[in-house]
Amino acid sequence: MSGHSKWSTIKRKKGATDAKRGKIFTKYIKEITVAARNGGGDPNANPRLRTAIAGAKSVNMPADNIDRAIKKGTGELPGVAYEEVTYEGYGPGGIAILIETLTDNRNRTTGEVRHILTKAGGRMAEAGSVQWMFHQKGAISVARSAADEDTLLGIVLDAGAEDATTDDPEVYEITTSPQAFEAVKAALQAKNIPTQAAELAKVPQTTITLSEKDAEQALKLMEALEDNDDVQRVSSNLDIADEVLARIQA
User: Fold this and answer.
1) pLDDT (tens digit, 0 to 9) for every residue of the chain, 250 residues total?
2) What are phi and psi of 33, to 5 degrees?
3) What is the pTM of this model?
4) φ, ψ for residue 133 (rounded to 5)?
5) CATH topology of domain 6-74
6) Helices 21-39 and 63-74 meet at what angle, rounded to 10?
C-alpha cells in the first residue's frame, strides 16, 4: 500500500495510542538528541532533527524540553549516549517485523525485544533476513478535511510525491522518495495544509493478510513492542481486513 506502513494505518483505526504522555516525550527526546548528535543542532541544516522537532511539537512537547534535548545531543549539556539498533523478527502468521530502537544498553534491549517476540509466538531473525522486504519512503498523512482531493494531489505530485492514496475516508496517505520528502512537506506548508504525521518510514513491498486469530495476536505483539521505552518505531508487512479488525475491536 502507499503511504505509511499498513501497521500505522491499522494503529490509527484501532485507536492504539500511547496512554502516557511521558512515554511519547521520552521517545521524541531520544530522537532529537541522536539527530542533533549526528547532524548538528540547527534544524534548518539537519532534516532528521527538523522532522523530530515537528513530531515533538505535534504532541505538545514544551519548547524547553526540545531545547534541552538538542543541547544534550550537541554536547552543550550532559546526557546519555544512545545507540541506534535495528532488530529483525517474525511474528504470528509469518509477518516480518523491523524494530528500530535507541538504547543506552544494547544487552538489555536485545533481551527485552526477544522476550516480547517469543511471548507472542514470534522470534528474532538474523540480520538482513527481513530488511530487504522494506523500502525507506517518506510517509505523510493529511486529514481529508484539510484540503480537497484535486488540490492536494496537485500540490504533492508537483512537489515530487510518488503517490497519494485517497481511498481512506479520514486521511490522504502520501508517499515520497526519501529525497523528495522535505520538498513535499514544504509544498504543503506553503499552502497552509497541516500534516497529521510526516516521517521517513520503512514501507513493506508487499503485505500479508492474517487470519483473525493470528491478527489479534499480531496486534498485541506490535503494541507490546511499541510500549517498550527503547523502541522508537515498529514496521511490519502486517495486513488485516477491515471486517476482521472491526471484530477484534468489538
Assistant:
1) 333 456 677 766 666 555 556 688 899 999 999 999 999 999 999 999 999 999 899 888 999 999 999 999 999 999 889 999 999 999 999 999 999 999 999 999 999 999 999 999 999 999 999 999 999 999 999 999 999 999 999 999 999 999 888 777 888 999 999 999 999 999 999 999 999 888 888 989 889 998 889 999 999 999 899 899 999 999 999 888 777 777 876 6
2) -60, -50
3) 0.86
4) -80, -10
5) Arc Repressor Mutant, subunit A (1.10.10)
6) 40
